[in-house]
Design goal:
The chain is built from 15 helices and 19 strands. Strands 12-11-8-13-16-17-18-19 form an 8-stranded mixed sheet, sandwiched between helices. Strands 2-1-3-4-5 form a 5-stranded parallel sheet, with helices on both faces. Strands 6-7 form a two-stranded antiparallel sheet. By secondary structure, the protein is of the alpha/beta class.
Length: about 400
């Protein structure tokens, strides 16, 4: 059963070419059971006729703050109180800026300022506008106020460019709206998770890798989805199917994993590094299969970039969780990683023994943070992932009470 049944959604449509997708979004939200009232900015009305939204929503469409008929009954306050969720799709760069500045010079911005309902934005704009520091700073401001974002996706744009800025796919927007009502510990929170090993080429047919199967990271993704989070999974090569509902980004090398994470982290509230990333790569992989020489062979290895450390060192890092895979002095090494990499939490597991750790169905985890630690015990990776997600949610909510 959809979590949107009988939920009252105020959809604000702002000006942009992606506005043509908004009537279909209304239809899908209604199919999921929501009651949808549409507010259009003046710019949006240049792209789509209000009558279209009236037809698909079955409700009058709102546009003017100073509409005497509606405002006689304080229409904008009524709408602000009516909404269980305010969804802005597409959200233009201009509208995000006006929202961040707290403007109230039209019905849409006034409604956002007057509502106590959560606000979800689905940005859509040209990729350069999306990547502009002003837009990114506006998003940071909005996030600190509890506004959540879904998308944008990356791909071909109406302007002919390719890159991030496309309106998220409509099912993803509907799913993000649903998450607000899931009531899970991580409802509305966006997680970025790495999983699996990396492969570092020696030559076109040989690699350096490790025994990670990806099971722990995929279990984390599943547990996070069950807790109501939206999940992007950056996965090294594994034989596993990504959990339904997650966004999967497949990579092979540590460098590719670094790029995929850095490209997605701006959209993450929580980052969990479960992947067993190679610490070294071959300095100069051979372009052709290396021939057996019958003598000693020396490979020169150079360090890969530490993804977890780079995420934690960002100016506005997400809540950052690392794993520590150790063969001895588990807690001591985990604490060194916690402080050394500037993390919020570390989940430590003993590896190199049979039955737990790498490539097994069970694991045993011990979580450490600045002022404490918790033993999560030995269990299946699925069960442990649920326990660990619960601990992460508790610490995340304590750090960001405004987003609870
Ligand atoms: O995949 P499975 O078979 O289910 O096994 C699960 C697991 C044992 C791989 C998992 O539970 C685990 O411990 N993952 C982390 C493995 C690891 O690389 O640990 P580390 O102690 O070497 O690294 C510490 C942390 O830094 C990790 O969060 C790691 O993802 C991160 N790191 C390391 C190197 C690097 N270049 N970038 C990183 O982000």
């Amino acid at each position: 059963m959809s979590l949107l049944i009988h939920k009252q959604l105020c959809l604000i449509v702002t000006g942009g070419i992606a506005a043509y997708k908004a009537p279909e979004l209304v239809r899908r939200l209604r199919d999921a059971g929501a009651v949808v009232k549409v507010v259009m900015t003046a710019a949006a009305r240049e792209f789509v006729q209000p009558l279209t939204f009236q037809a698909v929503s079955g409700q009058p469409v709102h546009g003017d703050l100073l509409d005497p008929a509606a405002e006689a009954a304080m229409g904008h306050i009524e709408l602000a109180r009516w909404a269980d969720l305010v969804l802005i799709a597409p959200a233009s760069a201009d509208f995000l800026a006006r929202l961040a500045a707290g403007l109230a010079d039209d019905l849409a911005t006034t409604l956002c300022l007057a509502t106590a309902a959560p606000i979800l934005v689905a940005p859509a704009m040209n990729r350069v506008m999306w990547e502009h520091p002003a837009t990114q700073a506006n998003l940071v401001t909005l996030r600190t106020r509890g506004v959540q974002a879904v998308g944008p996706d990356s791909g071909a744009q109406a302007c002919g460019e390719t890159g991030p800025g496309r309106l998220a796919e409509l099912p993803a927007i509907v799913a993000a709206a649903e998450h607000w009502f899931s009531g899970g510990e991580l409802a509305g929170v966006r997680l970025l998770i790495t999983a699996g090993p990396t492969h570092e080429a020696i030559d076109p047919v040989r690699i350096i890798t490790n025994r990670s199967s990806g099971k722990m990271g995929y279990a984390m993704a599943l547990a996070a989805l069950a807790a109501g989070a939206s999940v992007t999974l950056v996965s090294g090569p594994t034989a596993l199917s990504p959990p339904t509902g997650s966004v999967i980004k497949r990579v092979t090398t540590a460098a590719e994993m670094y790029s995929a994470v850095m490209g997605a982290v701006i959209e993450a509230d929580i980052f969990i590094a479960c992947a067993a990333v190679a610490d070294y790569q071959v300095a100069a992989p051979a372009p052709h299969k290396m021939k057996k020489q019958g003598r000693e062979l020396t490979l020169t290895l150079i360090p890969t970039r530490d993804i977890l450390q780079a995420v934690a060192a960002r100016p506005h890092p997400p809540f950052t969780v690392g794993f520590a895979a150790e063969t001895e002095n588990l807690i001591q090494h985990a604490r060194a990683k916690l402080t050394g990499k500037g993390l919020n939490l570390v989940a430590a597991n003993l590896v190199g023994q049979s039955g737990t750790g790498f490539d097994s169905d069970e694991n045993e985890l011990h979580v450490v943070w600045d002022e404490g630690e918790k033993q999560l015990g030995r269990a299946s990776k699925d069960a442990l992932a649920r326990r660990l997600i619960s601990v992460i949610a508790e610490h995340y909510r304590a750090k960001h009470p405004a987003r609870a």
